[in-house]
């Protein structure tokens, strides 16, 4: 039997299993994503998504068994990430990573994103950074500098989701322009918010790119998030009208 000494890990999702048990879908620092069986945890109910744990498990194969779980104290306990944003990040990881495929860089990226969103929940550009980094790390990111057909340095760039960016001469029908400002931001460190006015363009471009590996199956969290933002905008406009 294989036993691990303990590892930093996040619970992406869990569902009931058998008599009082839970199956945890976990994203761990060294092992990547894996399923872990937690016996008798349902009654104790102290394992939650959106917080880091020190997890120990034993056993090989499809479903190792949880041996211990300690929450790692961090600021997220006091100030959790808004549930919808957490759901979105977790759903992307669940859909686009595979069990048994270690992804330490993506793990670090996820932790940075969640910490940043907990501190500043309206910094949606952090999600754009996470989406682009996820595409890069998993090998699906488009080259932002050169045309995918002729290799020339892009002046104007036209995005064809899943195929890359093309110059004006090689633009295919249906490709959408991606502005130079958006390309510069995406190709950089993405440590500061993008310039004003780019949010919608970046959101649409990255959503289209992600649709390829998601094979067109929509994300439940994206639908909920869009509905929430619509309601929130309506509420804010309503308040402005009343204040006039
Ligand atoms: Zn070209």
What's the layout of helices and strands?
Elements (H helix, E strand, L loop, with lengths): L6 E11 L3 E8 L3 E7 L2 H4 L7 E7 L6 E7 L3 H4 L4 H14 L7 H16 L5 H13 L19 E4 L3 E3 L9 E3 L1 H8 L11 H13 L8 H24 L1
Keywords:
244 residues; de novo design (two linked rop proteins); 2 domains; 8 helices; three-stranded antiparallel beta sheet; OB fold (Dihydrolipoamide Acetyltransferase, E2P); alpha+beta; five-stranded antiparallel beta sheet; 8 strands; binds zinc ion; globular
Describe this structure in words.
The protein is an alpha+beta fold and 244 residues long. It folds into 2 domains: 7-78, OB fold (Dihydrolipoamide Acetyltransferase, E2P) (Beta Barrel); 83-243, Recombination protein O, C-terminal domain (de novo design (two linked rop proteins), Up-down Bundle). The chain is 39% helix and 20% strand. The chain has 8 helices and 8 strands. The protein has helices at 41-44, 75-78, 83-96, 104-119, 125-137, 180-187, 199-211, 220-243, and strands at 7-17, 21-28, 32-38, 52-58, 65-71, 157-160, 164-166, 176-178. The strands form 2 sheets. It has a 5-stranded antiparallel β-sheet with strand order 3-2-1-4-5. A 3-stranded antiparallel β-sheet has the order 7-6-8. A hairpin with a 3-residue loop joins strand 2 (21-28) and strand 3 (32-38). Helix 3 packs antiparallel against helix 8 (220-243), helix 4 (104-119) runs antiparallel to helix 5 (125-137) and helix 5 (125-137) packs parallel to helix 7. The radius of gyration is 20 Å and the shape is globular. The termini are far apart. The protein binds zinc ion. The site of zinc ion (ZN) has 8 residues, from loops. The site of zinc ion has 8 residues, from loops.
């Amino acid at each position: 039997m294989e036993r691990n000494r303990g590892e930093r890990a996040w619970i992406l999702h869990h569902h009931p299993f058998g008599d009082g048990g839970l199956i945890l879908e976990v994203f761990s620092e060294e092992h990547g994503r894996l399923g872990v069986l937690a016996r008798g945890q349902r009654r104790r109910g102290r394992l939650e998504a959106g917080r880091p744990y020190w997890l120990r498990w034993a056993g090989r194969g499809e479903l190792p068994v949880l041996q211990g779980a300690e929450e790692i104290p961090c600021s997220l306990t006091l100030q959790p990430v808004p549930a919808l944003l957490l759901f979105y990040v977790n759903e992307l990881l669940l859909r686009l990573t595979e069990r048994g495929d270690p992804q330490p860089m993506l793990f670090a990226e996820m932790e940075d994103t969640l910490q940043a969103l907990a501190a500043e929940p309206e910094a949606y550009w952090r999600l754009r950074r996470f989406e682009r980094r996820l595409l890069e790390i998993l090998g699906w990111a488009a080259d932002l500098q050169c045309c995918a057909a002729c290799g020339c340095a892009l002046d104007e760039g036209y995005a064809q989701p899943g195929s890359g960016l093309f110059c004006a001469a090689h633009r295919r029908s249906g490709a959408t322009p991606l502005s130079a400002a958006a390309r510069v931001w995406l190709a950089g460190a993405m440590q500061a918010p993008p310039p004003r006015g780019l949010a919608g363009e970046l959101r649409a471009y990255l959503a289209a790119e992600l649709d390829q590996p998601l094979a067109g199956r929509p994300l439940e969290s994206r639908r909920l998030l869009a509905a929430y933002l619509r309601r929130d905008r309506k509420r804010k406009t309503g308040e402005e009208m009343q204040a006039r």
